[in-house]
Amino acid sequence: MSFLSRRGSASRRRKNTDISPSSSTPLLLPDIELSTDRPALLTVSPADPAAHWAAGHRGALRAAVTEHGSVLVRGLGLRDAAEVGAVFEALADSLMSDREAFASRRTYADGVYSSTAWPPNQPMCMHHEASYRREFPGLLLFACLEAPERGGATGVADAESVLAALPPELTKRFERDGWLLTRSYNNEIGASVAEAFGTDGRTAVEAYCRAHAIRFAWQPDGSLLTRQRRAAVLRHPVTGRRCWFNQIAFLSEWTMDPEVREYLVDMYGPDGLPFNTRYGDGDPIGADVIETLNEVYEAHTVREPWRPGDLLLVDNIRSAHSREPFEGPREVLVGMADPVRPADLDTRDSGTGDSGTGDSGTGDSGTGDSGTQDSDSKDEVSFT
């Protein structure tokens, strides 16, 4: 068992390949450099190809990620997507497909993607990858093929420290009620239905939503509204420590560029934003709360500028990550690995959806919800 417990039914399992070292004795890592302003740094100069080196040091690398939350490996000299994919395969138990994306990615190979398409002049604030999904990656793998001229670092922040630094009255409410993600899918802004779900067929989309505790409502114009309630705090499956784990700030309307938000609200209305977050009981989250979250994140962020060939491993529960604005070309490949589906995931909103034709949906028997319709009267999005 790896450093996270997981279920990988929809993921790509690690293959048996010929890159494994001939000896079963685990190889030791060189000394890891620790600093208060950058991730744990491991500088290497392997004689073997990068995938061979990664396979030989797999256990030690994953143990280091568990200990430090993230590890930046410098010196592998990764050159292309094929080499990156081989390294990802060597390090991961299984690579996941990208589902429920909020923006598009380029697919290089199964389980190997580009960074999220996001304006380079705008930051991507701290978040835990796919924390709104019912099954999310436990391990993130980033590989830099081209570093930008300026900016563009991937920052990381310790989720346990962030939780401890947040106001207790705020975390108490989120722990009690969880958080709610609302999304509006159309063909004009944000990810399309096909990009998010891998299909635009209504039957398949509805089946996915019911299976993943997502409420849905098709609109007369053909667009889709969804909402999903998730836990805001999780215990790490190995350390047992409580971690602030969500995308409350990142997917909030108040984190958008003010001009972009104003334009989107004017064009589509407050319920037509491509994504937004609320308290788990449906109440809106104020701009002051999002400002507090981002300030605490920033106070706990460490970062190191990318260099071509770098590899960054991140424990997705233990560490949030971000992306700075940048100038010049930037190519960072991403692998989402080792799916986690914690038993205590909040699934009170367990997939009872409105198909838009009078179908009230069905309960998800795997979550203990027997099909009860959750009205959420405080939620301004209509799910009749």
For the record, the CATH class of the largest domain is Alpha Beta
Helix content: 10-25%
Taking strands numbered 1, 2, ... along the chain, how are they ordered across the largest sheet? 2-3-18-8-21-6-5
Major beta-sheet overview: 7 strands, mixed
Shape from CA axes?
A: globular
Question: How far from one another are the termini?
Answer: 44 Å
How would you explain this protein's 3D organization?
Helix 1 packs parallel to helix 3 (81-91). Strand 5 and strand 6 (112-114) form a beta hairpin. It contains nine helices and 21 strands. Helix content is 22%, strand content 24%. The strands form six sheets. A seven-stranded mixed β-sheet has the order 2-3-18-8-21-6-5, with helices on one face. A four-stranded antiparallel β-sheet has the order 7-19-10-17. The protein has a four-stranded antiparallel β-sheet with strand order 12-13-11-16. The model is unreliable at 1-10, 14-24 and 344-384 (pLDDT under 50). The chain has helices spanning 50-56, 58-68, 81-91, 159-165, 168-177, 193-197, 202-211, 258-268, 287-299, and strands at residues 11-13, 40-43, 70-74, 94-96, 107-109, 112-114, 124-127, 136-146, 150-151, 156-158, 179-185, 215-218, 224-230, 233-235, 242-244, 275-279, 301-302, 311-315, 319-323, 326-327, 331-340. It has two domains: 11-154 and 306-340, Double-stranded beta-helix (4-Layer Sandwich); 161-295 and 344-367, 4-Layer Sandwich (Double-stranded beta-helix), CATH 3.60.130.
